[in-house]
Amino acid sequence: MSIRGAVMVPHPPLIIPKVGRGQEVGISATIAAYEKAAQHVAKLCPDTVVVTTPHSVMYADYFHISPGREAEGDFGKFGAKEVRIKAKYDIELRSQLCSLLDRDGSMAGTRGERDSRLDHATMIPLYFLEKQQVRYRILRIGLSGQTLEAHYRLGEYISKAADILGRNVVMIASGDLSHKLLEAGPYGYQKEGPEYDKRVMQAMGTGNFGDLLDFPDDFCEKAAECGHRSFVIMAGAFDGTSVKSKRLSYEGPFGVGYGICTYETVGKDNTRRFLNQYEEMQRQKLEHKKASEDAYVRLARKALETYVRTGKMLVIPDDLPEELRSKRAGVFVSLKMHGRLRGCIGTILPVTDSVAEEIADNAVSAGCRDPRFTPVKEEELDQLVYSVDVLGETEEIASPEELDVKEYGVIVSKGRKRGLLLPNLEGVDTVEEQISIAIQKAGIDETETGVKLERFRVTRHK
């Protein structure tokens, strides 16, 4: 077990005295805990410190691992250019990690470097570690827009690479918590902010890392968290490992949550295969959901699966309910995977002879022709969750006051430009948001006047 331990730390620039200029006294508990965390890392005598950072290069579908022999940075953007940090990279560990990732087709590597300078989320923990006069090299890894499961697996790869080389490695999971703790704070308040911090500190403080995987994207977005995926990578590095965890501090006096915990490896523990457990739980949930699907959703699923596996359109079955075979209506088919949208295509007005044909055509389009996504692969089919919306009649309205985001969808149009947004969508809480998104989809300038509004109801099948 080459992963010797880890620390979870925040990265507020004002914690550096020449940046804070006295303001740092407001987070004195965090400073004291940071010193203890640095001492903890030093005690573990790492050959290499792996820093996961939200402020390095970040891509939607790719983990960036910093290239080069060494890097440096300073706090000039925070008014303290004289405070500089320099570090050497562990080239051999990086090469081994990239080799493992490449072999398995993971979207990660050293390509796409945009700025070689160390970011503040990396420099702040190294600033405290320098005081301990420890000799070490680093690996700097950015986050990505990939799933939490992908971040956890990256941590597993880090552990494998360290084991192959016999490196003593300590993980530094750099990340602030919610930025939405105080109305008077720089980012305002959302009720999800304190809730997020409470849940994360419970999971991190007890070492119950499996809980980190059960945080929906929309919840994390509303909480405006910074470091969640950084913590998940660290959790993956401890997969199947018992750890001694210690919560050192938590505070958020400026409206941003700062939490510090330390971890030390104890030994192997196969009951702590958190990703396996989570994926099995999700598989069971999906099987239960499939068993309860109605004829509309079953038809959408069968249509897409047939097309992906054979390249042919489904022949509409004869045993469908009468309303599917005889009625005509616009239909939208939405696909989700791991809680994220995987495709959504629909028709405002019917273009086929029946709702059944409309569903089949749009299911294939949602899975294979949505320009925002790559076509669904066969191995993804069992992970998809379907939603079918059958649109009712549209009616023109005079003002947004006649809308209700839960009850009505909206269609906006001007000239040949037209955009639609379905009702009752996660993350769309106000009529203003609903109209704004529809206008963006239509390609209409938000400053334009004379935009026509229509509303409609849907019958949603899930």
From TrEMBL:
<keyword id="KW-0223">Dioxygenase</keyword>
<dbReference type="InterPro" id="IPR027623">
    <property type="entry name" value="AmmeMemoSam_A"/>
</dbReference>
<dbReference type="InterPro" id="IPR002733">
    <property type="entry name" value="AMMECR1_domain"/>
</dbReference>
<dbReference type="InterPro" id="IPR036071">
    <property type="entry name" value="AMMECR1_dom_sf"/>
</dbReference>
<dbReference type="InterPro" id="IPR004183">
    <property type="entry name" value="Xdiol_dOase_suB"/>
</dbReference>
<dbReference type="InterPro" id="IPR023473">
    <property type="entry name" value="AMMECR1"/>
</dbReference>
<dbReference type="Pfam" id="PF01871">
    <property type="entry name" value="AMMECR1"/>
</dbReference>
<feature type="domain" description="AMMECR1">
    <location>
        <begin position="291"/>
        <end position="462"/>
    </location>
</feature>
<dbReference type="InterPro" id="IPR027485">
    <property type="entry name" value="AMMECR1_N"/>
</dbReference>
<keyword id="KW-0560">Oxidoreductase</keyword>
<protein>
    <submittedName>
        <fullName>2-aminophenol 1,6-dioxygenase beta subunit</fullName>
        <ecNumber>1.13.11.74</ecNumber>
    </submittedName>
</protein>
<dbReference type="GO" id="GO:0008198">
    <property type="term" value="F:ferrous iron binding"/>
</dbReference>
<dbReference type="Pfam" id="PF02900">
    <property type="entry name" value="LigB"/>
</dbReference>
<dbReference type="GO" id="GO:0016702">
    <property type="term" value="F:oxidoreductase activity, acting on single donors with incorporation of molecular oxygen, incorporation of two atoms of oxygen"/>
</dbReference>
